[in-house]
Amino acid sequence: MTKEKQVLGAERQERAGRYVWATRSRRSCLVTALCVILFGLSTVLSVARAAEEKAATPEKATEEKAATPEKAAEVKAAKPEKASEEKAAKPEKTAKKDKEKAAPSGPIFYPQAPEQPRIQFLRTFSSAKDIKAKASGFKKFIVGEEEKDESITKAYGIAVKNGTIYVCDSGQNRIAAFDLKAKTLEYFGKGASSSLKKPINIAVDSEGFSYVADKGLNCVMVYDSNGQYARALGDSKKMGPTDVALLEDQLYVCDLDNAQVVIMDKKTGQEQRRIGSKGSGDGQLFQPTNIAVDGDGNVFVSDTGNSRVVRFDSRGNFVKKVGEIGITPGRFVRTKGIAVDRARRRYVVDAAFENVQLFDPEGNLLLFFGEPGNVPGGLNLPAKVIVDYDNVDLFKSNVAPGHALEYLILVSSNFGVNKVNVYGFLKEK
Question: What CATH number belongs to 81-426?
Answer without folding.
Answer: 2.120.10.30
